[in-house]
Amino acid sequence: MQKITTFLTFSDRAEEAANFYTSIFKNSRIINESRYGEAGPMSKGTFMTATIQLAGQELMVLNGGPHFKFSEGISLFVNCETQEEVDGLWEKLSEGGTKSRCGWLRDKFGVSWQIIPTVLGQMLRDKDAEKSKRVMTAMLQMNKIDIKLLKQAYDQK
To answer: Along the 157 residues of the chain, how does pLDDT read in single tens digits?
Structure first.
């Protein structure tokens, strides 16, 4: 069991989100779930909570009621190894949501995600300040991160 687990509280779509997220990421599953009983606060039998595993990382989801809203102050950061992985996750997670700048998107449930190739961090940490500056400038112009364009900026003479 991991020591710290991200806990996402949805208004009333936690079950749909759990199924959606586990269908997108490899090595993902719903570990367990529970439903509200007689004590409420939602109707008996309504989905209450689940522990899910996304790409090997456990999260919990809860239907907590209409007063719960998501904020971009918290996001799920996904390290991607290839452009194909970036493209696939970007399209699937943003469907019904909104695409934003610099690899950020908000899914149809309002959860914020960052879909980021690992090479971006490597380039930004380069000891050559000019290279990392060019990469940052290129990234700031992007919505979905494009590895080829990052490498072009990095390799400029």
So the answer is: 789 999 999 999 999 999 999 999 999 999 999 999 998 788 899 999 999 999 999 999 999 999 999 999 999 999 999 999 999 999 999 999 999 999 999 999 999 999 999 999 999 999 999 999 999 999 999 999 999 999 999 999 6
Take residue 93 and report the two structure tokens written for it: 């997670």
131's CB contacts (< 8 A; 6+ apart) are: 123, 154
| CA distance linking residue 146 with residue 142, whole number of Å | 8
Q: Which tokens go with 137?
A: 């400038």
List, in order of start, the domains of the chain with CATH numbers. 6-63 (3.30.720.100), 75-155 (3.10.180.10)
Residue with tokens 């790409």: 55
C-alpha 109/C-alpha 12 separation (Å) is 10
Tokens of 40: 């409420």
Name residue 115's beta-bridge partners.
78
